[in-house]
Structures are given as structure tokens and as C-alpha cells.
Input
Amino acid sequence: MNKVFVFGSNLAGIHGGGAARVAHKQHGAEWGVGEGRTGDSYALPTKETDVYTSRSLVDVAGSVESFMEYAVANPDLEFQVTRIGCGLAGFTDEDIAPMFKHAPSNCLFDSAWQPWLNNARFWGTF
Output
């Protein structure tokens, strides 16, 4: 099964730090693409075009829904979801993890989210 690295990004697609940098350097995330699939990665925006400003939780939840629709439409892919938004964007695991409660079975999560996603599959810790 092909693996896709899911990372928190900014809408400008400037992948300069954290998991975004790893996505750019190792998984083909394209500079300038702040949301969606490029290479073997999927950018899920948690920050605005102004990379210093975090998006609202409502906006992040909308992007999570779009991502989950993509995951459902691509059952041949396995999505390794990092703790999006829990680094530079400043959200907590408790803010973000529950947004993935109804994620499809081809999504694997950072084990730090196990308290909120106890029926999910986990891939370790990023």
C-alpha cells in the first residue's frame, strides 16, 4: 500500500519547519502548495498565508473534513497523520485529535492521539 505523509502546513505552502520541512525534503511536498496532495504527502493547513497566524479551529476542522473525504476516495492509500497543528500552530492534542474521530481505516495516527482515537490505528510518534 502506498503511504502518504499528512502534515500541518500554512496556506502559503512555505514548508520551512517541523513536519512540513520533513514533508518537503523527504515526501515530495511542493513549495507553494499549502493544502492537498503533492508527492507522497498531504498538506493540511493549520496556519494562514501569514505563517505567523494560526487558522481558527473551525477552518482547521473544514480542512480535516476535506482531507478525510480524500482519504475515503483513495482507499488504496495509507495516510500517516502527524500531530497536525500541535507544534508551530500552537493547538493542543485535545483541540485537534477529536476532529479525526470518524476518519476512515486507511488513516494511521501518531500514538500521542490514542486517548482521543482509541478505535483508530497508530503508526508511532513523529
About this structure: The chain is about 25% helix and 25% strand.
